[in-house]
Amino acid sequence: MQKVWSGDADIQNIGPRSKAADVGWNALKKGFEAVFDNFPELKVSMEQPRIKINGSTAWVSGIEKAQRKNKSGEASSGANLGTSIFVKQGGRWLMVYHHASAMPQ
Hints:
Layout: E1 12-14, E2 22-23, H1 25-38, E3 41-46, E4 50-54, E5 57-69, E6 75-89, E7 92-102
Parallel strand pairs: 1-7
Antiparallel strand pairs: 1-2, 3-5, 4-5, 5-6, 6-7
């Protein structure tokens, strides 16, 4: 995950199970470690992303589809409304913000 995220101090991630925003790399790392500890197998895709680029800022939004397996091998899936914001830094697009909210059932 560190390869796709900016190292800026104000990066933020809000996951579908989050109670608050993780801010800064240390908080994001801790949050990702908890997710991957609960779901060692996790795949998230977005079939029809809406992508907009404006100068050195870009954003992607759409429906994320998550497929996961917990430690005991039990599979589950779900859909989230997702938005990610990227900033071009050093010639690379790096994420500075991500928010995913579970879709209403």
